[in-house]
Amino acid sequence: MDKALKYRIVAWMVAIFLLILLPNAVSVPSELQTTAIVSGIGIDKEGEEISLSAQILIPQPSTSYSPKSTVISGTGKDLMDAISAVELKTGQSLGLAHCYIIIIGDELCNDNLIETLDFLMRSNIMGNNTALIHTSQKAEDILKVSSQFSESDINNLQNIAKFNKENYNSTSTSLIELFSEYALPASASVIATIDSDKSAEQQSGSNSGESSNSGGESSSQNGGSSSSSTSAFKNEGKAIVVKKGKKILDLEQDDIMKFNWLDSGTQKGNILIENYSDKNLQNATIGIKQTAKSVHFNPKITNGTPILEANITLDTRIESIENGGKIQTSHKNYYNETLVSAIKTKINQDVQDALNLAKEYNFDIMDIYAIFNSNLTADWKKYLNGLDDKDNYMQNLEIVVNVNVKNKE
């Protein structure tokens, strides 16, 4: 067979291949037409039903990444039904592969979150590392506030949760972490709380109305909100404690800071020493920056009492000194043994306050069970077997704190 015939045969095969497949490829709609890209979801309780709100990205023709977003909601008897309701409204299937956050409304936390979120955990429609955030308001409203931010802040909720964990409080919990902690004997988790600033929203609405009355036009960066909007997130460092799938307690920022002395995940923070006096200062207020922290535990059981020795090492430096209304600009000579002793006293008191709160509501978010069980397995089981209710193992716990404070000025 000559080369010319071979080329003709190959050319005809390619032509036939294109004639068969090309019409189908042209007629198939693009993925953007069939799938709604979801960046975050909110879940609320609506009577006996579940309401799901999806923050859907709307791609825009641009040389830069500048999507708009809109929030669509639907209700159903469970999450699967609620997702179907949203899909019916959009005419697209929800693409949750890039969903970075799940916001949980407060009323929903009175039910078992594990049962509610089980569909998301077991299905293959989204990643298990999606961050969880609680709100004392409606989850739908928080998503709407998020949609008002500029395109560069599209993942602002995730950034806030990550910043909390790395800097001030270790309360960033993912979907898989919630389920993993639920399966542990302690069955307790902490979920950060983020709300919207209602006063800012009201002011925003007033500003928007004034703009309309004056005949001026306002543009929207994301999904139709006014550019004059001053709505913002209210992140006060609060959180909730979830035990066995249900919320049992709201934690204030001060409470979380006290628990965090025993959490090696939190490296940075602030220490405020008030009414401090030494040979140089009288009733001064000293602000100290914590730049690093390490925590090591030494558990033991003495006469049937579990005692946890916590060895904490802190890298610190003085940030501010207010003494009798005067601000001290030089801090070097004020870092002395008296100040170190005041820092140690404060940390010891904070840890005891945290322990008393944990005993009062009978929860374990400090991994006490795991610490004793992994280091003193036989003695720990013996201690548990001696209790009338094994779930009350926190009630007899004692914590001894040893603090090593380093000056890093």
Describe this protein's structure:
The chain has 12 helices and 17 strands. It is an alpha+beta fold and about 400 residues long. The strands form 4 sheets. Strands 1, 2, 3, 4, 5, 6 and 7 form a 7-stranded mixed beta sheet that branches. α9 packs across α10 and α11 crosses α12. The longest helix has 25 residues.
Features:
409 residues; 7-stranded mixed beta sheet; elongated
Can you summarize the main beta sheet? 7 strands, mixed
* Quaternary structure of the protein: single chain
SS content category: alpha+beta
Order of helices and strands: HHEEEHEEHEHHEHEEHEEEHEEEEHHHE
Briefly characterize the structure.
The chain has 409 residues and is an alpha+beta fold. Helices cover 35% and strands 31% of the residues.
How do the helices and strands line up, and which of them pair or pack?
Blueprint (H helix, E strand, L loop, with lengths): L2 H25 L3 H4 E12 L2 E10 L9 E9 L2 H12 L2 E3 L5 E5 L7 H10 L8 E5 L3 H8 L9 H13 L4 E2 H8 L5 E5 L2 E2 L1 H16 L19 E2 L4 E5 L2 E6 L1 H7 L9 E8 L7 E19 L2 E19 L2 E3 L8 H25 L6 H8 L1 H9 L12 E10 L2
Parallel strand pairs: 1-4, 1-5, 5-6, 15-17
Antiparallel strand pairs: 1-2, 2-3, 6-7, 8-11, 9-10, 11-12, 13-14, 14-15, 15-16
